[in-house]
Amino acid sequence: MQLPDFMMRFPALDLPIPEDIVTSRAVRSDRGLVVFFTFHKDFTLPPHSHKGQWGTVIHGQIKLTMNGDTRTYGPGDHYNIPSGVEHGAEITAGTVAMDVFEEPDRYPMRG
What we know:
The protein is mainly beta. 4% of the residues lie in helices and 49% in strands. A hairpin with a 2-residue loop joins strand 5 and strand 6.
């Protein structure tokens, strides 16, 4: 699934994951960060924690583990990760997700 052209012109983020695995487009305000992630390859996100995060799967599948509980999310499903909760994920190639982060500076903008 390809995001619309106008969204592809949003800035990318400087992520600690290579662009051949995931690309990003983001909108930032002083109160939070909205990111559209497109996964090009299967990816395992190791357990970690940070401030609050809410997300929804637009296309594909995310297997999310929070506090030892694993659930699979598909298109239209959403998840809420409270601040400080450890979580990790298995994300299938082709997945497009929108994540909203409580931290406006969670990831630096590229360029």
